[in-house]
Fold:
Amino acid sequence: MLKLPELKFSTQKFKGLSQKAFQVHHEGHHATYVNKGNELLEKLNIKTDNELEIIKLAYGNLTPDYINLFNNVAQHWNHSFFWESISDEKKDIDPKLAKMIESQFGSSENFFKEFEQKGASLFGSGWVWLVLDKKENKLKILQTQNAINPFVVSPDFEPLLVVDVWEHAYYLDHMNKRVDYLKVIINALNWENATKILISL
Ligand SMILES: [Fe+2]
Structure:
């Protein structure tokens, strides 16, 4: 059974997005992916609840139920990771990660500029990720469309952070101004969580 995770930050304290927007996003959009995913797992008689296993199993299977299964379970995973990627408290970048960012992007300012630009320029709905390419030991900014996530792009990619750039993520508070929303989210990125993943690899 897929489960909707609790949010670990205060939506009341979060600056730049309303509690209503979080409620609709979490209990509306995200919960729908969870419910539809569970319906499909039952229909297809899939017993595992290992989300990454389901995502990899369903990806590339072009029968309609499996396409839906991939979309709903990947969207569930992506949203769960998005909630871990943001915080109501400003988190500093850990020195080790800051050093990697500076050596690869020139400066943290350059990194933020590029991350925002990648979020703004993604056509349609999708996600912008900071991933570690484990093979090259390099950080990369990755754009994915719809429900696609780094696990199906490359087995070498480990996601450290993600930002939801589906219109449903920003429309209530920021209307069509995706860049305004991106500035809010980039300022609220949970670097502590990114560091925790990086040191666990
Ligand atoms: Fe979303």
